[in-house]
Amino acid sequence: GSADVECDVLVLGGGPGGYSAAFRAADLGLKVVLVERYATLGGVCLNVGCIPSKALLHVAAVMDEVSHMADLGVEFGKPVLNIDKLRGHKEKVIGKLTGGLSAMAKMRKVTVLRGYGSFAGANHLEVEETSGAAQQKTGKKQVVAFKKAIIAAGSQAVRLPFMPEDPRVVDSTGALALTQVPKKMLIVGGGIIGLEMGTVYSTLGARLDVVEMMDGLMQGADRDLVKVWDKMNKHRFDNVMLKTKTVGAQATPQGIKVQFEGLDGTKSEGVYDLVLQAVGRTPNGKKISAEKAGIAVTDRGFINVDVQMRTNVPNIFAIGDIVGQPMLAHKAVHEGHVAAEVIAGELQGNPELASSAFDARVIPSVAYTDPEVAWVGLTEDQAKAQGVKVKKGLFPWTASGRAIANGRDEGYTKLLFDEETHRIVGGGIVGTHAGDMIGEIVLAIEMGADAVDIGKTIHPHPTLGESIGMAAEIAHGSCTDVP
Ligand code: FAD
User: Does ipTM surpass 0.90 in this model?
Assistant: First the structure.
């Protein structure tokens, strides 16, 4: 049929995956249309994810730090919370970043269409204009004709079916809205998102309970590291319920009443002023009429792709949360670049670009809690399960001059090396600034470094980063002195 707009590349979704793909494609000389139902670009990450959570976590970390300063010889008064101002700070941070994105889109001449996109065929997308805070459809429709498309429609929070519709039951978006600090808060799901939001609310004054089906919080991270986190965060929780399911909930005038059932059959109940559901995210694959373009979507709503991010339909690509785990912004960005490069290569007959592929060896994860926990590659348990024999270097921060000077020597840096190849296969850090340090371990894995490479790399003294060099020396057996 006839189209209102024509382009080389249509990008569906303006999150980290979508805007990265759109910008790279435009930089490579393609005509790009970016469709986003929200008024701002940035997707979950900038609007209701990574960035607002870190704006609040920064404030919480400063508050926690200050509360320990009396031991170091300086006493501050009791913090006085102005929740409207704090929310305003968070909104300002979001505004700065999303405003920056929209300026960058303009600069690159990327056409941003605000509306809800649904496929009408393998070369057409229908966009129904949206407006206002609730993304109401205005009824105005446009058809975009494209040569190639990149689906970056992301994911949304999973909702437990039995949770009552009530303002006291929220997902991460509701928790980030920060309308109140409850006395007693339940976090359903002990993963990164739940624990980050729990950290914020607990520092602001809430008492926490957490319920998790598995046998430990922060699944995926090395247990040695989580042990330290558990110890340092005990004070936030009244009740840590592991191997426990949340099975029911009712709204009552006294609070949200929630029922739990242990995997051993024990039943219990609690009443909460706020319940945060953080039990995972589900991809948006089933909401974009993918079938009209012939795109295969899995039962769970994921879209499978190859290493070039191509779906089963040759001119249609997909990236980010919608293609699978790990659902992380930095993964989405790299996938977006690959898709844009492959497309530009194919449209422009550039074989080098056309052969671009996603070939990351590893993708790092970070919990921006206090202390932070960051990890990449194999954990010790995973190495064992996969039959990879590893040599480990575990460096305690009680031997780090900088950590001691900071008054924060609870951390550990742990590196794992393959006994056969000697190459580094995994690493993790628990401690302040762990997230900012993990990149070095990622680089070491990508470059196939061994313990000597890392141990002989001169790290500045006194820094927390030195702990990475020291852990390598410990694994290599060459560590004779600790600073
Ligand atoms: P999204 O960011 O989900 O963007 C998809 C976009 O597509 C959305 O803007 C949506 O409105 C739009 N869209 C969807 N369907 C349509 C349609 N049919 N028409 C028009 N538009 C549509 N990751 C990290 O790496 N680090 C973190 O610290 C971190 N913290 C997080 C904290 C929280 C509370 C949450 C919820 C997530 C966090 N994440 C973090 C995960 C991160 O936000 C996601 O991995 C990332 O946003 C995925 O990017 P994406 O481009 O795939 O999709």
Answer: yes
